[in-house]
Amino acid sequence: MRRIGQKAVLAAAMAMGLAGCATAQEAPAAPPTPVEAVDPFIGTAGKGHTFPGAVAPFGMVQLSPDTDHRFFRQSYDWAAGYRYDDPTILGFSHTHFSGTGHSDLGDVLLTPISGEVKWDPGQADQPGSGYRSRYNKASEVAEPGYYAVSLTDSGVRAELTAGTRVGLHRYSFPRSAPARLLLDFRSSIYDYPGKVLWSRIRLHPDGTVTGFRETRGWAPGRQLYFAMRFSRPVVGYELRNREEDVPYNGFRQPGRDTTDRAQVQGRALEAAFDFGPIVGPLLVKVAVSSVDEAGAIANLESEGAGFDFDRTRAATRAAWQDALSVVEIEAPEDMRTSLYTALYHSLIAPSVHSDADGRWRGPDQQVHRSDFTVHSTFSLWDTFRAQHPLLTLVAPPERNADMVNSLLAAQRVSPYGILPVWSFHGQETWTMIGYHAVPVIADAYLKGVPGIDGAAALDAMVASATYRPYGGLGDYMDLGYVPIDREPEAASKTVEYAYDDWTIARMAERLGRGEVQALFDRRAGNWRNTFDPETRFVRARLADGSFREPFDPTAINYGSDYTEGNAWQYSWFVPHDPAGLIAAMGGDAATVEKLDAMFEFDNTGLDYSHAEDIAGLIGQYIHGNEPSHHAAYMYAFAGAPWRTQGRLKQIVDSQYRAAPDGLSGNDDVGQMSAWLMFTAMGFYPVAPGSSQYVLGRPFADRIALNLHNGRRFTVTAEGLSDENLYVRSVTLNGQPLTRSWIGHEEIMAGGTLHFVMGAEPNTTWGAPAGARPYSMSAHAMFGR
């Protein structure tokens, strides 16, 4: 679609006689703008689980087509509601996750209908059996803030756009056909019987439709309210409770029915609205809220009156252009597309959660009000690694502060007094492990994000790290590790807690809280209690101190010793103390040998089909899931950064491409994308909280960060090619850089990081002990 626009411009120029000008003919076409370079279809096939619909940066509404809602045991591949290869579209719903490994949402599903209303979706392989419609694949258009498609069965052209809190639909119906709209309030991603606990739909005298439902899904007890208005008057309507399955004789007429008949309550509600034959499009405006219907109405009105679809589309496009233009990318077309799409996916969540008046629903199910914009959708086990560190570079400081303050606000009203683990719409899911809101807060505070109360933040972090009932923390505090005979996934929990503890110690150090620092520095060393020097793997221990037997480092089973992985991946999860891990491994050479063994492992005979999140294997390195994401950079800590450079080339070439199946695993709310963005820039935050980035190698000729402090930091690559995959030398602001890391403050100061690439590795660059990135052990030894 991007090229079609450029060709149209060229054709117009030729018609005006400009094509005969040699200068015009020979001038190279301008590269697509950042917005034009984004392809929202990347990740919508394969394991990416992204959606192609309309969303503003960090928008509350994600308005996107749903192609199927499978029964919950089959819902994994439909976590975003859409699969690129599905032949039919159910309709368009207003809330979606981007790239998660679990499904939910899909709220307020609307379907335009040009004939008889069918109240059930029907079967995809039986055209006409329900309200779902086949669609013209070639007619699909997706760009930041806009989606369009032609529905074959209904003959409707559907267009979607969205502001921060409002979704706007534009439906063009066939001439002389009745224009109708179905609202299926039963429908939800991660569908199963009994998910909807209660719901309500009301038609107000002014034509506004509002509703409410409470669901028992991934987040139990989630409340969702909506408000909807139409650009044309409703001439007939039906409200149905499908549990009762009461037959109706045609559409009711507004104003001729009693008030109670303009409202329906129950657990299986639908509504149909008739607008009669119309000339011109029907526009539908929808807002959602976690608070109440009044909040949804206020949100509906917060972004302007009327139904100016094109104005909303233009405003959101401009917002995306501003957000994406923070990064300037010069690279071959496919790489540039992949990178701008990765940046786009990194800026969808955490999403706005508070209403326009500042109210929001917390994990205590009470309504609160804040003077900052509250965000939710925190996939913290995934995003603490790279997505949140990326936001500290590319998102405005006030946005980062809002996210941190949202975590702290949730902790203050949590029934358990702890920070979110994996939350959305203000509700906790208890998914994944660790207390990874802690490194997100520490990293932002230590990097100088203004507007964060450091003392209050540290108190909240300590409260989460000392809540004994959570995930074996009581035993961890008493024994120095989580025992596997008392808590599943104990090996993973121990090493992840130890890293989180280290970030608390760094926060306490900055704030001068010596006792807290000393306690959590000790706890940060607890990873050693899971390391087996005989096998040189991180392993699970029993409460009596012995390692659990039998031991198979390739075994992956849910609820076993590890979380979505095995010993091969988790034995590298000591991001705060690689020097200590290397010493335990037997030194630099032994560490490099072990890393090579992981990447080159022969998986013949291994079957991981039972583990949905295990994708993107390179030996026992699993790029499609997060525990491996820093592993390629571990070579640099062992004095072999050239091995990092070679592995990064292997990973990028095999795990990413500019195609619908261009992500090897779930994007996980931007983490897979953020990894690519950092790696393409030539550096990666192995240990958020250290304020250091480990140097790898760039994947673009030039990337410039237009920092929010007014400065610019530029990364350039000389001689970059498929053959020249190694770094020969590096300079920072024209001066030789012999260390294999760069500091956050150096980036924020602005300047130029220049890589010279070559076909042969420079095995001496970054190799000396003093040139290596931060490690807790090395810092204590050398004070650097």
UniProtKB/TrEMBL annotation:
Q: Where is the Glycosyl hydrolase family 92 N-terminal domain?
A: 38-289
Signal peptide residue numbers: 1-24
Q: Which residues cross the membrane?
A: none
| One GO cellular component term | cytosol
User: Out of the domains of life, which is the source?
Assistant: Bacteria
One biological process term from GO is:
carbohydrate metabolic process
UniProt KW Secreted keyword: no
Q: Which GO terms describe its molecular function?
A: carbohydrate binding; peptide-N4-(N-acetyl-beta-glucosaminyl)asparagine amidase activity
Query: Which named protein is this?
Result: Alpha-1,2-mannosidase, putative
Naturally occurring in which organism (per UniProt): Brevundimonas viscosa
